[in-house]
Design a protein that fits this description.
Nucleotidyltransferase, domain 5, five-stranded mixed sheet, homodimer, 12 helices
């Protein structure tokens, strides 16, 4: 039987697994629901990781000898897991050992570069940067959440859009094109009626926003990205780019290592990407690909298999070809 | 029987009532627990308003004919109440009618000035400003809560203290004297141990803060006020003063009316007060006194009784003399 590894990218909304031969061939992939034990509970997370692995093994024909499994997730780091007992549960449920949990910051990095020295900046709902040294997560900057940090993140930008719209309606802030789009996001529009001197719509806007979890303000970030020429939106984007640059600079100083940019908000087509590119000129920037490719490279590294640029490119290409949409239980495959 | 009014200042932690003769004599006062129906529920709020009134009437000897009652609270405004059915409940429970509910923004204003034209800025956990015209609350600025507004408030300042401490520990921000005080507030202190390049204490700090309600960050505001010469704290205070000045300016423009400053954070001894005084030079600033004095003046205005400067001064002095600490049921009186 051919020796192989299992790699799992366990996320807050979906979990994906791959069976990968030691030469970097992708032999099978699988997909299931939410796999983070903090946000979804350890029971559901375990079930989804197991299901994704089962699919990947089935697709590969169950013809390999699995020599190691690696699961990457938010909160995992260098052997510590976000919840106690997760490794034992996964092993008990049939995920082949030896099994390790590691950080999704590392898999995001390795999705963009196979180098043992480098850095990654992830900007999605949150914002976090990591310095990779000798293949391990040596240092972390920010990632402190919406209330205390995540400077320049989707939440950070989205909350500022909400504040700008509220201040515009309140007469305290500049008029901005953001206001109508923010109102529309909650099914509201400006009217002519006023209440104690302010547009009456301010009251249902406040009600809608406080009726949701604060983190949901991140949904307003795309509105800011859509209006890069609006003066208020531009100031928000400049602030985000400055904050993210500060996070990277505090972590890297002048170290000349590759910097992987990951997360939806700084993708190549984003207005934030333009601003970051100016500030990061002179650094060697790479674009993250699929976190599962990063997890697979890490799994190969763990067992001492070759994990160079060629293997990395092959993993990325093979997974890109395999990640067609599938039904929730892989029925269409 | 002498005609009199009842005035009630119903707050989030305590409720106070006064029986006041139409010439402005304070005939009796009473005190009970939380009286805001939004934060405490309509049942408890009703019970505490009723209890405070009962005590005030008992202290006055129940010898007056109550011609009108007025309750001021957060969320009340020009006849609208924060919860449906509150007026009916209070009347059913024996609070003498006709009964009206009005805004605590107005009672804060009238605690500092009897003039029918003016403005008030209240800076506590939140921040709100109001323009009073013809004795009514004509316009409001801010007061939009911790997530969307309250610019320059206790929460606004306290959250920035937490962010500054976290960024200091994270190596992203300036070192600041705030950090040790913020840690101490949660029973923590710096150690030498590190975790992925950061002081290990960052992790329990994050845990402590996310384990509480966001609004509780307002408790950190006094730390900033205690360090006015620290560069980071000074920047926060400058930002708060600018935001509060913007709120006032958006509301008042160049209108030359008295401006009442209310709330613990801009009291005369506060570092924020100094900064506000510079920015408001040229405006006629007054200091708020006891919200119950404002509510009493409003109750007198409602029935057409004299409510001039002399009556205002007498109400303030009489209530200051009466507000010695008492037991929860007024047992010591």
């Amino acid at each position: 039987m051919v020796p192989a590894v299992i790699a799992v990218d366990a996320g807050g909304t979906s979990t994906r697994a791959a069976v990968v031969g030691l030469t970097g061939d992708v032999l099978g992939v699988g997909r299931a629901g939410a796999g983070n034990p903090i946000s979804s509970g350890v029971e559901l997370a375990t079930a989804n990781v197991v299901e994704a692995c089962r699919q990947a093994l089935a697709q590969s024909g169950n013809s390999e000898r699995i020599v190691s499994s690696l699961v990457t997730m938010a909160g995992g780091a260098n052997g510590s897991t976000p919840t106690d007992g997760l490794v034992a549960r996964l092993i008990d449920s049939g995920v082949p050992g030896p099994l390790a949990i590691d950080s999704d910051v590392l898999s995001a990095y390795f999705s963009g570069s196979p180098a043992s020295e480098g850095a990654v900046l992830i900007v999605g709902t949150g914002a976090v940067a990591g310095r990779i040294s000798d293949g391990l997560l040596a240092r972390v900057a920010d990632g402190l959440g919406w209330l205390l940090g995540d400077a320049g993140s989707g939440f950070w930008i989205g909350r500022r859009a909400a504040i700008a719209a509220a201040a515009d309606l309140d007469g305290r802030g500049e008029p901005t094109a953001l206001t109508d789009d923010v109102l529309a996001e909650y099914g509201l529009s400006r009217g002519r009626r006023k209440r104690t001197g302010r547009p009456e719509v301010l009251s249902p806007l406040v009600h809608e926003i406080y009726g949701r979890r604060p983190i949901e303000l991140a949904r307003l970030a795309p509105i800011v990205l859509r209006h890069p020429d609006d003066p208020v939106a531009s100031l928000i984007l400049e602030g985000a780019a400055n904050a993210l640059t500060n996070t990277i600079t505090s972590l890297l100083g002048d170290d000349d290592v590759p910097l992987v940019l990951a997360g939806g908000l700084i993708g190549p087509a984003s207005a934030l990407h333009d601003r970051m590119s100016q500030r990061l000129a002179g650094r060697h920037c790479l674009t993250a690909t699929d976190g599962l490719a990063g997890a697979a490279l890490m799994a190969l590294r763990r067992v001492g298999a070759e994990a160079n640029q060629a293997v990395h490119a092959r993993l990325v290409a093979a997974l890109a070809a395999r990640t067609l949409p599938v039904g929730p239980l892989g029925a269409s495959r």
